[in-house]
Design a protein that fits this description.
Glutaredoxin; alpha+beta
């Protein structure tokens, strides 16, 4: 039985960063197809109503993400002024689509998330793109040309529209047979469902 999971994720989200290892474990350990969908209202040009910042909720987010990062041995650096101000995600989101076309999405995701949330670097700085392309061993000019192309921008809009059609409202969200699974803690629920379907690979960890 062919099973496809769609993963809507965002470089803007510390929870997407913290979920990355778990998401790739699902991909590696189960006989499934995983479609990675870089999802961002801002990158797609959508203007959404600003949500009020609730101090207790925000302080819990900092507490929770730092706790999860520490438990998993992951560095976590919040950009200065976040979430009132945040890095523009457009280039990174579009880059994920091009990296997927090139067959290097996994490497791209890890490197962008590591620099963004592990080191607190701005993805729009010139050095960010230069060093990223060096590490990925791809041509900077060719990559940026494709990233900035109008059809790539349209694809970003298409991904966002698709996510909203499924009811994705934040990331990470997994769509599994029309069902939504939102949040880091839902990875275990998805794994349990895949186990019941007998889709775990024999050599899985």
């Amino acid at each position: 039985m062919a099973v496809t999971l769609e993963v809507f994720y965002s470089f803007q989200s510390p929870y997407s960063y913290l979920a990355l290892d778990g998401l790739y474990e699902l991909q590696d350990n189960y006989d499934i197809q995983m479609l990675w969908q870089p999802f961002s209202a801002k990158a797609s040009g959508q203007t959404l109503p600003a949500s009020p910042i609730i101090p207790d909720k925000l302080s819990y987010l900092f507490e929770d993400t730092r706790r999860i990062a520490a438990l998993n041995g992951l560095p976590l650096v919040f950009p200065e002024g976040w979430p009132e101000t945040e890095f523009d995600p457009g280039r990174a989101i579009r880059g994920a689509l091009i990296a997927n076309d090139m067959g290097i999405l996994k490497e791209y995701n890890y490197k962008v998330f590591q620099r963004w949330w592990g080191m607190g670097e701005n993805p729009n700085d010139e050095n960010f793109s230069n060093e990223l392309c060096d590490e990925l061993d791809i041509d900077l000019g060719d990559f940026l040309s494709k990233v900035n192309a109008s059809d790539t921008r349209e694809r970003v809009k298409g991904v966002f529209k698709r996510g909203r059609k499924f009811g994705a409202f934040d990331t990470p969200t997994i769509i599994f047979d029309q069902d939504r699974y939102y949040g880091l803690e839902k990875l275990a629920v998805v794994a349990a469902r895949l186990d019941k379907l007998g889709l775990k690979k024999k050599n899985a960890r």
